[in-house]
Design goal:
The radius of gyration is 25 Å and the shape is globular. Helix content is about 35%, strand content about 25%. Helix 15 (about 430-450) packs parallel to helix 19 (about 575-595). It has an eight-stranded antiparallel β-sheet, covered by helices on one side. Strands 5-6-7-8-12-13-14 form a seven-stranded antiparallel β-sheet. It has about 600 residues and is an alpha/beta fold. It has three domains: about 5-245, Aminohydrolase, N-terminal nucleophile (Ntn) domain (Glutamine Phosphoribosylpyrophosphate, subunit 1, domain 1, 4-Layer Sandwich); about 245-440, Glucose-6-phosphate isomerase like protein, domain 1 (Rossmann fold); about 450-610, Rossmann fold, CATH 3.40.50.10490. The longest helix has 22 residues, at about 430-450. The protein binds fructose -6-phosphate (F6R).
């Protein structure tokens, strides 16, 4: 959350930064701004999206070969021009962008106010910037040294990038907890929150680590730790193409990403499982396989959609490995003094790999001796690097704020891990193992078949778009799918929606049912199918509108459901990867039918790097 971009080199900085900010807008879109050096330090900022900033700058002389830019997701201070980044120091000499939160900003601010500093915004960023400036003035030290001293006092998470009017040759950046990637070009450097603003120019990047400071000139990159010792930059080659981060003819990233799923699931399975010979190979898991096999319990830690993937995986792991699984909201796990023993296995699930709640939760469990396995999409991200081992989901960049293809890829990876461990433990017989491997193999094709029902889902969306509430119901493996359906609808269409276990409905939520309430049933053939159909009867008897997702050839919802969506039959353990597709498409089409910006829903940001 919050996107930062910076450039230093021989190009015009503004177009590079503007394009980069548009690519990072998924991280926040409350306001945007840039600072450039053109006859002195110039800062331009505007409430709203990057396009609003761009519009105000048309026709201005923006020539500069150095610059910093920011797109904001508000934490301290409402979204407004004055709270937008970059911020300027009191002397006007320094400009800074920041992603993260300075938790002890109030006490630092008070110190500065006592010294006569005035603040023009409500942000923690302006406090940190003036704190740095104050140290520089009082100590008469170089900016780099002032940053180092200031950061030793700071509690919180940050990536900061500073520009100094008196030193047009240098950018200074530092990181703790929030992501920073530096792209290395020929006589130029690119800085960004992720690699998407960089890949068009260079594939050589350095992921800056926590507590590192970068001093960047056009042709030189120096990394130091906070003890002022040089650190050798570790250069990584990006394995990503520009096309992967563009819309490719779709109206929205969300739709593109929903439609990519046959490929992303295939890519995730490819090279890892072979259904013909019955093998699963996952090198990042293999080295911890013994710990997994002998684990007394497994804890899954995640947030949002990734947490829903964890809930499905709980059922899968317990079924196939007979190891008890707990699924924890990362934000709750960290702060309730959880019981973690040396050798406990924790699986952290995250698309971005930067979610602060998940990151701090696994860091504290790691300190207690737990083994952390990451199921992460973004290569080189903080969670991936903090984990001892794990497996990437290989879903490619997910830019739409609502998570879609990451969920199915997470399930594919988690299912493979559970199958592998179950096979090693002997808790699954060969026949079932082979059957499930074949079922996994068929998922990409079955997902393609569901995607063919896009037009039908669009029509259903049109019919129900004005509802004020929705209920999503499912049982067993389909219960987390119902939760995910409700979350997708809430975030994309702003319609209140709740997911429940279908049988739990009679313990309270059934009071909500009347002729206006659409109730989505995830009711594909499984062990509880008949009971779910009875639950459907109960809704119909109270005149609720039933939208049912059923298995092909199943007639049991006929006469009960107002709208029926059929999906190919799959083993119940595999079915969530298929059944979630109509949930995603329904939410998408309702959001579009309501005229909303589905790629950038209000108040949200994709990569939630604050706790
Ligand atoms: C929902 C959504 C969020 C994320 C959550 C975790 O569509 O996008 O609920 O799933 O913020 O993010 P990651 O998976 O990046 O840790």
């Amino acid at each position: 959350m919050c996107g930062i971009v910076a450039y230093i080199g021989h190009k015009e900085a503004y177009p590079v930064i503007l394009k980069g900010l548009k690519r990072l807008e998924y991280r926040g879109y409350d306001s945007a701004g840039v600072a450039l050096l053109n006859n002195g330090l110039k800062v331009y900022k505007k409430k709203g999206k990057v396009a609003d900033l761009e519009e105000t700058l048309v026709g201005k002389d923006l020539h500069s070969n150095i610059g910093i830019g920011h797109t904001r997701w508000a934490t301290h201070g409402e979204p407004s021009d004055r709270n937008a980044h970059p911020h300027r120091s009191q002397s006007g000499k320094l400009a800074m962008i920041h992603n993260g939160i300075i938790e002890n900003y109030a006490s630092i601010k008070q110190e500065l106010v006592n010294k006569g500093y005035h603040f023009t915004s409500d942000t923690d960023t302006e406090v940190l910037l003036n704190f740095i400036e104050d140290i520089r003035i009082n100590n008469g030290c170089p900016l780099e040294e002032a940053v180092r001293i200031a950061l030793k006092r700071v509690v919180g998470a940050y990536v900061i990038v500073l520009m100094d009017e008196d030193d047009p040759e240098t950018l200074i950046a530092a990181r703790k907890g929030s992501p920073l990637v530096i792209g290395i070009g020929k006589g130029e450097h690119f800085l960004a929150s992720d690699a998407s603003p960089i890949i068009e120019y260079t594939k050589e990047v350095v992921y800056v680590n926590d507590y590192e400071l970068a001093i960047i000139k056009a042709d030189e990159l120096v990394l130091k730790n906070l003890g002022n010792e040089k650190v050798t930059p570790f250069i990584t080659k990006l394995d990503m193409e520009l096309a992967a981060i563009e819309k490719g003819g779709y109206d929205h990233f969300m739709l593109k990403e929903i439609f990519e799923q046959p490929h992303t699931i295939f890519d995730c399975l490819r090279g890892r499982m072979d259904a013909t010979v019955g093998s699963i190979t996952m090198s990042g898991i293999q080295q911890y396989a013994d710990q997994l096999v002998n684990a007394n319990r497994i804890i899954m830690i995640a947030c949002g959609t990734s947490w829903h993937a964890g809930l499905v995986a709980e059922y899968i792991f317990e079924e196939l490995t007979r190891i008890p699984v707990e699924v924890e909201y990362a934000s709750e796990f960290r702060y309730r003094n959880p019981i973690v023993h040396k050798g406990d296995v924790i699986i952290a699930i995250s698309q971005s790999g930067e979610t602060a709640d998940t990151l701090v939760a696994i860091e504290s469990a790691k300190e207690k001796g737990a083994i952390i396995l990451g199921v992460v999409n973004v290569v080189g991200s903080s969670i991936a690097r903090t984990s001892h081992g794990g497996a990437y989901t290989h879903a490619g960049p997910e830019i739409g704020v609502a998570s879609t293809k990451a969920f199915t890829a997470q399930l594919a990876v988690l299912t493979m891990i559970a199958l592998k461990i179950g096979q090693m433990k002997g808790t699954i017989d060969d026949k079932r193992f082979m059957h499930l491997l074949n079922e996994l193999n068929d998922v990409p094709e079955k997902v393609s078949l569901v995607l063919q029902q896009d037009e039908q889902l669009k029509a259903i969306a049109e019919k129900y778009k004005d509802a004020s509430d929705f209920l999503y119901l499912g049982r067993g493996y389909n219960f987390p799918v119902a939760l995910e359906g409700a979350l997708k609808l809430k975030e994309i269409s702003y319609i209140h929606a709740e997911g429940y276990p279908a049988a739990e409905m009679k313990h309270g939520p059934i009071a909500l049912v009347d002729e206006k309430l659409p109730v989505v049933f995830v009711a594909t053939k499984d062990a509880y199918h008949e009971k779910v159909i009875s639950n459907m009867q109960e809704i119909k008897a109270r005149k609720g509108k039933v939208i049912a997702v059923v298995s092909e050839g199943d007639e049991s919802a006929k006469g009960l459901a107002d709208d029926i969506i059929t999906v190919p039959f799959a083993d119940e353990l595999i079915a969530p990867m298929i059944n979630v597709i109509p949930m995603q498409l329904l939410a998408y089409h309702i959001g579009v039918a309501k005229g909303l910006d589905v790629d950038k829903p209000r108040n949200l940001a994709k990569s939630v790097t604050v706790e």
